[in-house]
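[audit] Reproducing an earlier prediction to check determinism. Same input, same settings, fresh worker. If the tokens differ from the archived copy the diff job will pick it up downstream; this log only records the rerun itself.
[audit] input (178 residues):
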Amino acid sequence: MILKKTRYGLLVKEHKSKIYGYAYFMLKNKMDAEDVTQEVLIKIWENLGKFKMSSAKAWIMKTTHNLCIDHLRQRNSMKNKEILADPVENENIFENHSVGHIVYNFPDVLTSELIKNAIRSLPDKLKSVFVLYELEGLKYKEIAQALDIPVNSVKVYLLRARKELQKKLRTIKTEQVI
């Protein structure tokens, strides 16, 4: 039991912020992201002996992704309820990532926001791969396992995400010059 608690503690310490960050990015809702994070943490505890520690990262991100998809499906099935985005929820989930270090120079903050918005506007399958690779640091194989897609699809989606981001950011830059 002590070993299980130790393993669980290590996994939580290492992955909790990544779970929350990914969930928040996918769901765009703080409370839903917190719910998914709690559900993943419970699933980690329940399944601790069923996966190897070496493949824990991929298993955790796959579980997180699947729960996010479930939440999105639930949200879509409740179309008769209006879902309002809370502007206060735009917390900086990028704090520990190179895309969004806290910066006090206004043009840099503006640029950082433009990049985050461009990433958020990507189609879900491109956004998932991009966030897992660029922000969460997963390898191609880990992303393929997490999203249950072939490694070649991961590479293609990542390439498409980067091209789409370049196009969007180039368009924004052109609009600012004009």
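[audit] rerun output stored. Observation attached for the diff report: The chain has two domains: 1-91, 94-178.
[audit] end
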